[in-house]
Design brief:
With 445 residues, the chain is mostly helical. It contains 19 helices and two strands. The protein is globular. The mean pLDDT is 92. The structure holds 4-fluoro-L-phenylalanine (PFF).
């Protein structure tokens, strides 16, 4: 059977589509806001360059050399203890777990696209009550849009790498960039733009503590889609003789640029029309709709465009979150793509319903343990444990387990004199950083 492979541009857009997601447009601006802006942004950028970029290359390399699902790739590449190393490939499960809440949030975004067409809340207070009403009492609306997200995502997956994932990204990624750059350009014409720039880039080191540092490292992983086999699975479909370093550079570059553009744009709007940056996770669903209202009629237009862009970003990431396990069942159990896609889709769909219920009054108390409901637990376990662990395992695998000569033969021609620096970072800097992040996110530090 001929295996479908990504085109060069298709791969970069798909990997960038995976990276650019809710993490960039929804999460990055509000955590940057919470940790005081500039200093946090610089720590984050530094982490992306020092750790993110090198793990991105390592993850692409494992996929490219393994050429199979994540479990088989680890198994074939490990020179010894293959039966143990194959379990490293189950990091692909993290994506399915993330999807449990990711799909629900995409559902909220779909709902906001529709409602923003007609009305926007006049005040932040009103916006807050609309959002909390949906979250805590409107089960059916959430179920409907979560179902829609499930159908879209599963449909694309059934179409495969070329006809589904590549096509989706070739269309949605350019559109997403056009919308964001258009709205960003408008933001640069507003008076508050310079305040946003100052907020994002002027470091106030007093605001940086170890918590901010750990959050920045954790977010660098999440936003670059590292540590759960998404990038690895895509890389298994790279053409022979692809330049991994160049591709990794483009993915990191696009992801970071889009996060910064989104941040600058949102902060400009918030300064110009609203009440400033630090608004927490509700920033996009609460503060922003009220800001769009202040803009007048153009606000509805902007709100719809913005939520469409957010939905595009979310969908292109979603397919990459599910694909590793789809590929796993195709490669290891000879399932058809249709069956694997539907089964994996049903997994996150059904548990997603539990996640919705865990926020609904009346059900919440049965789905809350130790101060966190099911929705928050899934978020916490994936971000605090699974992704950093996946990153740590990959760094150790490429840095210590695979023969250096083999790694060198692939990477030296592409990295040149930077090879040793990259290898050093994988062996010593990244594992230590990931370990510290994990302990600290788990509250053990
Ligand atoms: N990078 C995505 C975001 O920023 O929203 C989330 C994500 C996608 C994480 C794929 C991990 C992954 F494998």
């Amino acid at each position: 059977m001929k295996i479908a492979r990504f085109s060069r541009i298709g791969f970069i857009l798909a990997a960038a589509g995976s990276a650019v997601g809710l993490g960039n447009i929804w999460k990055f601006p509000y955590i940057a806001g919470e940790y005081g802006g500039g200093a946090f942004v610089l720590v984050y950028l530094f982490t992306v360059l020092l750790i993110g970029f090198s793990i991105m290359i390592a993850e692409m390399l494992i996929g490219y050399m393994g050429r199979k699902d994540t479990v088989t790739s680890f198994e074939t590449l490990a020179p010894v203890n293959k039966h143990l190393w194959k379990y490293a490939g189950f990091q692909g499960l993290a994506g399915l777990f993330i999807m449990i809440f990711y799909s629900v949030v995409i559902g909220w975004i779909f709902h906001y696209i529709v409602t923003s067409l007609f009305t926007l809340p006049a005040t932040v207070k009103e916006a807050e009550s609309i959002f909390t009403r949906m979250l805590h009492s409107d089960f059916l609306t959430q179920l409907f849009y979560h179902s829609l997200a499930f159908v879209c995502i599963t449909y694309v997956l059934t179409k495969g790498i070329k006809g589904g994932i590549e096509k989706l990204n070739m269309v949605l990624m350019p559109l997403l960039m056009i919308i964001l750059v258009g709205m960003f350009t408008y933001a640069t014409t507003l008076g508050a733009f310079s305040r946003a720039v100052e907020f994002m880039f002027y470091p106030d080191w007093g605001k940086i503590n170890s918590d901010a540092f750990v959050t920045a490292v954790g977010h660098a992983f999440f936003t670059l889609s590292l540590g759960m086999g998404a990038i690895m699975t895509y890389s298994a479909s790279l053409e022979k003789n692809s330049n991994i370093v160049k591709s990794a550079f483009w993915v990191v570059f696009l992801d970071t640029t889009i996060a910064i553009i989104a941040g600058l744009m949102l902060f400009t709007f918030l300064y110009e029309y609203g009440s400033g940056p630090a608004k927490g996770p509700g920033l996009v669903f609460i503060s922003l709709p009220a800001v769009f209202y202040e803009m007048g009629i153009i606000g509805n237009f902007f709100a719809v465009l913005f939520f469409i862009a957010l939905a595009f970003a979310g969908l292109t990431s979603s397919v990459s979150l599910v694909e590793p396990m789809v590929q796993y069942f195709i490669d290891r159990f000879s399932w058809s793509r249709l069956k694997a896609s539907i089964m994996m889709g049903l997994f996150f769909y059904l548990l997603g319903i539990v996640a919705i219920l865990s926020n609904i009054d009346g059900f919440a108390k049965y789905l809350t343990w130790g101060g966190k409901n099911f929705f928050d637990w899934v978020d916490y376990i994936t971000a605090a444990i699974m992704l950093p662990l996946g990153g740590l395992i990959m760094a150790v695998f490429v840095g210590f387990v695979i023969d250096k000569s083999k790694v060198e033969s692939f990477m030296k021609p592409q990295l040149g004199f930077a090879f040793e620096a990259w290898y050093f970072s994988l062996r010593y800097i990244t594992p230590v950083a990931m370990f510290v992040v994990m302990l600290s996110l788990m509250g053990l530090l």
